[in-house]
Automatic annotation (TrEMBL):
Top-level taxon in the UniProt lineage: Bacteria
Enzyme Commission code: 3.1.3.25
Gene: suhB
Binding site for Mg(2+): E74, D89, I91, D92, D215
Name used for this protein in its record: Myo-inositol-1(Or 4)-monophosphatase
Regions annotated as coiled coil: none
Assigned keywords, A-Z: Hydrolase, Magnesium, Metal-binding
Membership in a protein family: Belongs to the inositol monophosphatase superfamily.
InterPro entries: Inositol_monoP_metal-BS (IPR020583), Inositol_monophosphatase-like (IPR000760), Inositol_monophosphatase_CS (IPR020550)
GO MF terms held by the record: inositol monophosphate 1-phosphatase activity; metal ion binding
Entry keyword annotation includes Cell membrane: no
SUPFAM superfamilies registered for this protein in UniProt: Carbohydrate phosphatase
């Protein structure tokens, strides 16, 4: 294996430190367990004070470290253009975070043009940090990860993300298709962590009909390096707006793709 590009490797290490500090900030602002803290942007679409604070913290730190790099955030949009572009979801799983639950993360991905090349996902309440650099592996807490070896869809665990932007019949059609395969459906409330779960083998697949770049930017290098198969999210509109994603372990990917009518790369 060749040595990583020093400039990109340096950026990944810096991103790990920045995301860790941002995760600590989010933990310090974390609501106690109970009814949701924050406000709704739409039905079941939550926004907390922490989302804005964490995004601003990461934006400021990355600008100071790499002033020529582009930056895009869920809350602030594209703040700077650049060949290298950081894409952040300050709190992925805000509905969980707003209730004091543990399944949420800070997600920061790096794109080179249209190519996702590195990512960091930290879930501080779970004590987990995912990192990936294209061509140099995917890791959970420093240990290399790979997609699940499950070959039988009837033994598979598949998560499907819910969105109020998806008509109920469409959602139920995909859930029915998953269950018709004999797979076990799940829904956990964080797209980035679900994709990371596919990368490390905790899930055999993840589907979301409408999801945004900031939800998946850090996970795409993880999936590629862990050997998962993924739908062409970026080529089907994901760079500029919401699109559909399917990620799966390579052994059940074709069967799942056929069942839910979502093509893979």
């Amino acid at each position: 294996m060749s040595s990583p590009n020093p400039a990109i490797a340096c950026r990944l290490e810096a991103a790990r430190a920045v995301v860790h500090d941002a995760a600590c900030l989010a933990m310090s602002m974390r609501p106690p367990p109970g009814g949701p803290a924050g406000k709704q942007k739409a039905a079941q679409d939550w926004l907390t004070e922490t989302d804005g604070a964490v995004e601003a913290f990461i934006a400021e730190r990355m600008k100071a470290l790499f002033p020529d790099d582009g930056f895009q955030g869920e809350e602030g949009g594209v703040a700077r253009a650049g060949q290298l572009r950081w894409v952040v979801d300050p709190i992925d799983g805000t509905s969980n975070y707003a209730r004091g639950r543990s399944r949420w993360c800070v997600s920061l991905g790096l794109l080179d043009g249209d190519d996702p090349i590195a990512g960091v996902i930290e879930a501080p309440a779970l004590g987990e940090v995912y990192t990936a650099l294209r061509g140099h592996g995917a890791f959970l807490n420093g240990k290399r990860i790979q997609a699940s070896p499950v070959t039988d869809p009837a033994s598979a665990m598949i998560e499907m993300g819910w969105s109020n932007r998806v008509p109920k019949p469409v959602f139920m059609e995909k859930i029915d298709a998953i269950m018709d395969l004999g797979a076990m459906p799940r829904s956990g409330g964080s797209g980035a962590l679900a994709l990371a779960d596919v990368a490390c083998g905790r899930l055999d697949g993840y589907i979301e009909i409408v999801i945004n770049l900031w939800d998946v930017a850090a996970a795409l290098p993880l999936l590629a390096e862990a050997g998962a198969r993924v739908s062409p999210f970026l080529r089907t509109g994901g760079l500029t707006g919401p699109a559909t994603i399917l990620a799966a372990n390579p052994h059940i990917a074709d069967a799942l793709s056929k069942a839910v009518s979502i093509p893979l790369e």
